[in-house]
Amino acid sequence: MSNQIQKHRKKLSIGSIVVYSFLCIASILSLFPFYWMFVMATRPSAAYNTIPPTLTPGNMLVENFNKVLNQIDFFGGMWNSFVLCVVVTIVVLFISSLAGFAFAKFKFPGKNILFVAILVTMIIPPQLGLIPQYFLISKAGLLDTLAGVMILSFLNPLGIFLMRQYISGAVPDELIEAAKLDGCSNFRIYWRIVLPIILPAFATLGIIVFTAVWGEFLWQFTVLRDPDSYTIQVALAQLSNTNNIDFGMILSGVFWATVPLLIIFLLFNRLFISSITEGSVKS
Fold it and tell me: Does 228 lie in the same domain as 170?
């Protein structure tokens, strides 16, 4: 019996070593582009094309960032992106959770067809809708405004799907029925009962939406033409509109534009991990 236990422990230890080794390698490969971006942000532009590549940080981070500030309104772009991302994230969380609650706990005609139609929109490339969306925003008089950028992002099919799946497993039907017997309206059930339960899913979806909107470029570049309304992505694109491209300057701007995403993740990572682990336990 003891021999079998020892063999099992030996297999378990070998398996754990393999798994952790793979995770360490995958983590290093995932983090290396960010590290290299930081290294290039601290180096002159010539270091970008050196062979072998430079892997140690330099001393030009502040100098390169000062060049960025001289070329574009960096902090204005950061503020516009922050406002855009916060508004879109809040509205998407509200709409997606309400829709997910309806699809998960209510029965109504055409429910399955409507849900499938929403899922189908996820496979349509966003570039296909660029021209008609631009036409609609132009007719509405929302060009060169953050409202024109954000209004088409409020309905998020992925958010509706994630919320529907999470609410289906996390919110018991008995709890909703009991609330209805006490005379609660559907919205009060959502606000008082469902919302506190789905906070981990809120954190997960919020991080996904915030990072997606922050990193989106094509639609923002299409709608925004006034420099005062530029988001940080559109503003950074102006750095490459010169004949002599300074890669150190560009990557310095990109590095500092990435910092807010790291802050958002660190603030909500506990709820994010909680949502993932809850899903794995339930499955």
Answer: yes
Q: What is the pTM of this model?
A: 0.83
**Residue-number span of the structural domain to which 179 is assigned:** 72-241
Tens-digit pLDDT profile for residues 143-170: 989 999 999 899 899 999 999 999 998 8
The mean pLDDT of 194-211, rounded to a whole number, is 89
CA atoms within 13 A on the CB side of 74: 18
In angstroms, the CA 233 to CA 246 distance is 17
Distances in Å between the Cα of 229 and the Cα atoms of 76, 135, 142 are: 8, 19, 12
Q: What is the residue type of 241?
A: N
Contact 150, 82 (CB under 8 A): no
The set of residues, in sequence order, having a beta carbon less than 8 Å from that of 79 and lying 6+ positions away, is none
CB contact at 8 A, 62 and 44: no
- Residue 65 lies inside a defined structural domain of this protein: no
The predicted-structure confidence for 187-200, as pLDDT tens digits, reads as follows 999 999 999 888 88
Q: What is the pLDDT of residues 22-62, one digit of tens each?
A: 889 998 888 888 888 898 889 888 887 777 877 888 888 88
Residue 233: give its domain's CATH number. Answer: 1.10.3720.10
Per DSSP, helices labelled H in 140-246 are 146-150, 157-170, 173-181, 186-189, 195-197, 199-215, 218-223, 232-237
86 and 206 share one domain: yes
Q: How far apart are CA 174 and CA 179, in angstroms?
A: 9
Element housing 65 (H / E): helix 61-71
Task: State the Cα–Cα distance between residues 283 and 280, nearest whole angstrom.
Answer: 5
Closest by CA position to 87, among listed 153, 177, 3: 153
